[in-house]
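Illustration 12: ADP-ribose pyrophosphatase.
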Amino acid sequence: MSDLQDEAYTPTITASEVVYHGAVWNIRRETFDLPEATGLVRDMMAHTGAVAIACVDEQGRILLIQQYRHPVRARLWEVPAGLLDVPGEDPFAAAQRELAEEADLRAARWEVLTDSCLTPGGSSESIRLYLARDFELIADEDRHERSEEEAGFNFRWASLDEALDAVSAGEITNSIAQLAILQVDRILRAEAAGKPTRTRSVDAPRRLVDGRGDEAAGATADPAATGASDRPRA
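Figure caption equivalent — predicted structure in token form:
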């Protein structure tokens, strides 16, 4: 096996504080030392982590969901995904919940495709991407009632060729959707050729650990200074 792989590393942290409390995420400022440099100061988003699901049907199509994303002022094509924002919830359980809530589906077959750090220069977020197959549609009376941006979802089962073309042309820009499409292409090609797929079981350990929770770390900040005195916590 190749030794080309990321390595977890814990530097010497000399100071750590939350400088902004947001409704969902906090901004943490840390001072740390590395062997090659000392006294480094970095601000980062302390993120809950997330899960995403690449859904592939019996025709080899991938499920895409179009959702409005306000920070980029666009309706993006994505795969089902969501935050690890339920305390103590296992990532696989979160993926099952998100698939039911966002796509009204249950899946009988699950595998781990990959773990990904989206913006490691400024955020502790890591996301686990699952492959789900063999679906059951949830009955109308048992479905989650979607609201806010989710109320405007558009759904599309796209052929892999169509999805790959959209990624190559820059027409699908969500990074997890891009990764899901490319990974599904790799998996289906390997399966068709009778080659190992190198997927992992749903209980496989995560490659990297999400940033620690601010509450667990005992971090404090002045709500008046951050403007977050009356903001809800998700």
